[in-house]
Amino acid sequence: MALKFLVVDDSVTMRRIVANSLKTIGYDAFVEAGDGREALSKLSGDGSINFIITDWNMPDVSGLDLVKSVRSNDKLCKIPILMVTTRGLKDDIVEALQAKVNNYIVKPFTPQILREKIDQILASA
Fold this sequence. Notes:
single chain; 5 strands; about 40% helix
């Protein structure tokens, strides 16, 4: 099954970086959202999105709130979530893991790191 990613970040530049990194490592199916609210509306569609990469710090609905919403929804709760954020404090990572993100990357990152984290998530699924 081909993966279709939802890339969520309020920074257009960061969404481009993630999208280009995904292309570099061989994934070309993705949609983008500028915040958690937009992401939730894209997730409530046809069920074709099967991997979420989200930032934490966003207006309206944060990445952490997005994770909690996805995890509490019976139809979405199994979708793997990778958080890519500038928040690198241990307490932040613990909070994200408690909210049930599958893995966590602190910006900046390389396509190789992105591939490793995606592979780790898929291997444990």
